[in-house]
């Protein structure tokens, strides 16, 4: 792989710098080069005031890299950095994704958001599972929520959009690489009857993703639109933590049917969860509800309950913000161990109390989704599950 990277850099030396003196490599303008599944991802830093004029530079870089044997496609982005004291940068070139404008659509466009964005062929609904910060158990929640939805008789896919820290391959116990179906379209991996795609399938687990925003946007767009998802009732997207490029890309590029916010009970996590909720509101994505993860801890030795991170904070926050409260998931060894082992608790212990909690959350999510979609045409009745004491 390093030899191929050397070839890429050698080819890029043929591309002149922005001022036509030197080349983009020797001038230090090329980001970390990432090669995955025959595709090359890189970005080139250019002066912000020249960003509009340097599209030919981007095209030249993409062409010389694409000419290398073994490279199917080169995804090259221009990144403009603003100098201290500099005013607003000019609008980016057409092929760069603009992420600054996150407000609602102009008042003159009164169509619902879903009608303004192209969906994915065969996929009825796309929902995001998000959190304002990391470490709250969002990926474990995503995996068990997806399996809970499948237990309701739905066809489910999972997209791991956490480019920098993909966890879904480990949680589902899936390894290997996706196979090309035709051209640049990939066949998703499968785990426990779900279709799954993640950057973790395309790079080694220990490989750090040192990418700028435009590269993240390109990768997410490809994993959404260059994967043969087939017919799905729901595509569940495991979002990276925070409110940055990945979240905006998802909200702007596809018609998200809603978002599930995951938080722990303590105030610091709730502050960030609140930011995530507000961000989805700004981009016209309905919040399907809030999950309180690590809600409490039951001592396995004495059976005593401890509210390690406090308790009820997410429920109170949901009431304040007018969002549905979906449920409480305890902090328990079984949930952690089954996720680490690649056998999520909903599939490995389907009759356990913990599996029932996730299935109940899944039923509530689907019910809210169906209620929200009721104005767009006939929908299937929400399935129900019975939880026995």
Approximately what portion of the residues adopt beta-strand conformation? 15-25%
Question: How many DSSP helices?
Answer: 12
Average pLDDT for all residues: 75
Assembly state of the chains shown: single chain
Please identify the structural class as seen in this structure.
Answer: alpha/beta
Low-confidence spans: pLDDT under 50, at least 5 residues?
A: 81-115, 377-389
- State the total count of DSSP E strands: 14
C-alpha Rg (nearest Å) = 22 Å
Order of helices and strands: HEEHEHEHEHEEEEHEHEHEEHEHHH
Largest sheet entry: 9 strands, mixed
Helix fraction, binned, reads 25-40%
- The gross shape turns out to be elongated
| Separation, N- and C-terminal Cα atoms | 55 Å
How is the secondary structure organized here?
Layout: H1 2-12, E1 34-36, E2 39-47, H2 55-66, E3 73-81, H3 113-116, E4 123-130, H4 138-151, E5 156-160, H5 168-172, E6 180-182, E7 185-186, E8 189-191, E9 194-198, H6 213-225, E10 232-238, H7 245-253, E11 258-263, H8 267-282, E12 287-298, E13 305-306, H9 313-321, E14 325-331, H10 333-340, H11 345-348, H12 353-373
Parallel strand pairs: 2-3, 4-10, 4-11, 5-9, 5-10, 11-12, 12-14
Antiparallel strand pairs: 1-2, 6-7, 8-9, 12-13
Q: What brief labels describe this structure?
A:
12 helices, 9-stranded mixed beta sheet, elongated, 21% strand, disordered C terminus, 389 residues, 14 strands, alpha/beta, 3-stranded mixed beta sheet
């Amino acid at each position: 792989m390093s030899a191929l990277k050397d070839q890429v850099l050698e080819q890029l030396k043929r591309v002149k710098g922005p001022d036509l003196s030197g080349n983009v490599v020797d001038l230090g303008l090329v980001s970390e080069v990432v090669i995955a599944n025959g595709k090359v991802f890189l970005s080139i830093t250019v002066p912000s005031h020249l960003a509009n004029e340097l599209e030919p530079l981007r095209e030249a870089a993409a062409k010389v890299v694409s000419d290398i044997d073994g490279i199917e496609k080169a995804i090259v982005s221009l990144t403009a950095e603003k100098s201290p004291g500099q005013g607003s940068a000019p609008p980016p070139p057409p092929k760069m994704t603009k992420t600054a404008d996150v407000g609602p659509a102009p008042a003159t466009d009164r169509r619902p958001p879903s009608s303004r964005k192209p969906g994915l062929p065969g996929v009825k609904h796309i929902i995001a599972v998000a959190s304002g910060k990391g470490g709250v158990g969002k990926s474990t929640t995503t995996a068990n929520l997806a399996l809970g939805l499948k237990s309701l008789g739905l066809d489910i896919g999972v997209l791991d959009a956490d480019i920098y820290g993909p966890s879904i391959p480990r949680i589902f116990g899936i390894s290997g690489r996706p196979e090309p179906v035709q051209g640049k379209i990939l066949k998703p991996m499968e785990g426990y009857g779900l279709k799954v795609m993640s950057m973790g399938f395309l790079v080694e687990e220990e490989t750090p993703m040192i990418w700028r925003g435009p590269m993240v946007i390109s990768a997410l767009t490809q994993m959404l639109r260059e994967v043969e998802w087939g017919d799905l009732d729901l595509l569940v997207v495991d979002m990276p933590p925070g409110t940055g490029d990945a979240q905006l890309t998802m909200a702007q590029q596809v018609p998200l049917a809603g978002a599930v916010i995951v938080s722990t009970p303590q105030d610091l996590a709730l502050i960030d969860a609140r930011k995530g909720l507000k961000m989805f509101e700004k981009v016209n994505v309905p919040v399907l509800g809030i999950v309180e993860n690590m809600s409490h801890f039951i001592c396995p030795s004495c059976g005593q309950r401890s509210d390690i991170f406090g308790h009820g904070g997410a429920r109170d926050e949901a009431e304040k913000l007018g969002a549905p409260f979906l449920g409480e998931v305890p902090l328990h060894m079984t949930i952690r161990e089954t996720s680490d082992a690649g056998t999520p608790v909903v599939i490995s212990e389907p009759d356990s109390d913990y599996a029932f909690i996730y299935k109940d959350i899944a039923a509530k999510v689907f019910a809210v989704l169906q209620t929200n979609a009721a104005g767009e045409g006939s929908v299937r009745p929400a399935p129900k599950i019975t939880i026995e004491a």
